[in-house]
Amino acid sequence: MDLFNVSEIKRPKGGGLEIKFFDRLKPLERLAEMSEGETAAALPFYEALNSSARALYGRDAFE
Q1: 55 pLDDT exceeds 60?
Q2: Which of 30, 18, 49 is CA-nearest to residue 6?
Q3: What is the DSSP string of 1-63?
């Protein structure tokens, strides 16, 4: 069973099952908002992400 996107699983007292998923786009949207501002606080993260993509795939992540 692939549970890669699941962040939390609960069984409430009333019965049933509660599953929370990771929202993988929300952090990227937040970084995009930060990079559009006056300070480029997200730039080091983007550079690290690009260097990781180059190491794994041999190309930039943001081509």
Answers
A1: yes
A2: 18
A3: ---TTEEEEE--TTSS-EEEE--SHHHHHHHHHHHHSSS-TTHHHHHHHHHHHHHHHSS-TT-
- Spatial separation of the C-alpha atoms in residues 14 and 56, rounded to whole Å: 46
Statement: residue 61 has pLDDT above 60: no
How far from the centroid of its chain's Cα atoms is residue 8's Cα?
A: 16
- pLDDT one-digit tens code per residue, 2-20: 777 788 889 988 888 888 8
Q: Is residue 10 part of a domain?
A: no
The answer to whether position 63 is within a domain reads no
- Whether 18 maps to a domain, the answer reads no
Total domains present in the chain: 1
